[in-house]
Design brief:
4-stranded antiparallel β-sheet; Immunoglobulin-like; mainly beta; 23 strands
Length: 274
């Protein structure tokens, strides 16, 4: 079952004390000998997204091709005229063994991650890392902001000890619309038929429709402009599923969100914004 590791904000730190095992695993991943030869080029990209003022952006970083990544690092700095402070970072592994450490300083993020089995990047169509961050209520509609990242000093390697030089293609955040998805609760795991799943976000109306990849939905209830509740029509595993919210009258305009489930060893360093 696919499970993401969650590097969350300071409110979660007390649940996850500093862990020597985590440090040892990260040290293991970065100390493995690289295969002979120069690093190979590895393409990655950031998905473009449209988010209304006051909404929450889920920034998704994906590999261009599937790989079996055992270690890597992502560094991001976000535009202070558009974004608030980073809320959370999530890393996905096909085998659920991912561990990581996130250093969050306001709009600056430095995330190190590893997977002993090379589960990161293994599944097509699933991002390796997502960042949840609010868009300022004061952000001007129509404004755009580049979404860029770089790989940092931690080696990107796969299970064959091949080392990669990551080439990241930026995405763009456009401030606009009125619909965004902030959270899905519960965010993953196997749920029985009849379970109620809460969708948190902004801009919902009684004309908003929500769909989940591969999941049967028996009914949808509009609760408020910030909440829609779904009732599952059959048992389903929601972990890392795409959740789409859209207006039933304009189904081509959709907001995509990956559902998340905390797993693995978690450790956060939260610092004052620079």
């Amino acid at each position: 079952m696919l499970k993401p590791a969650l590097f969350h904000d300071a409110t979660e730190c007390r649940l996850v004390p500093p862990c020597l095992a985590l440090c040892g695993i990260l040290a293991w991943a970065t100390s493995l000998p690289a295969a002979p030869g120069s690093p190979l080029s590895l393409g990655a990209h950031v998905e473009s997204v449209t988010v209304p003022p006051g909404g929450t952006a889920q920034i998704q970083i994906s590999l261009d091709t599937t790989k079996t990544i055992i270690s890597g690092e992502v560094i991001m700095d976000l535009d202070p005229t558009v974004f608030g402070e980073v809320i959370a970072v999530d890393v996905f592994s096909a085998t659920g063994d991912q561990v990581g450490a996130g250093d969050i300083q306001g709009r600056h993020l430095d995330a190190h991650f590893s997977s002993q089995t090379g589960g990161i990047g293994r599944m097509a169509g699933v991002p390796i890392l997502v960042v949840s961050v609010p868009v300022l209520a004061s952000a001007t509609p129509g404004k755009t902001s580049p979404l860029t990242f770089h790989a940092g000093s931690t080696s990107w390697r796969d299970t064959q000890h091949v080392q990669y030089s990551v080439v990241g293609v930026p995405g763009t955040l456009t401030v606009g619309g009125s619909l965004s998805v902030q959270d899905v609760v519960p965010g993953g795991g196997m749920l029985p038929a009849g379970s109620v799943v809460k969708i948190d976000g902004t801009g919902f109306t009684d004309h908003t429709t929500v769909a989940v990849d591969g999941v049967s939905i028996a009914s949808t209830q509009f609760v408020s402009p910030q909440e829609i509740d779904l009732t599952l029509g059959a048992a389903a595993d929601l972990t890392a599923k795409r959740v789409y919210a859209f207006w039933s009258r304009i189904p081509t305009i959709r907001r995509r969100h990956f559902s998340l489930l905390s797993a693995g060893v978690l450790y956060i360093v939260q610092r004052a914004a620079r």
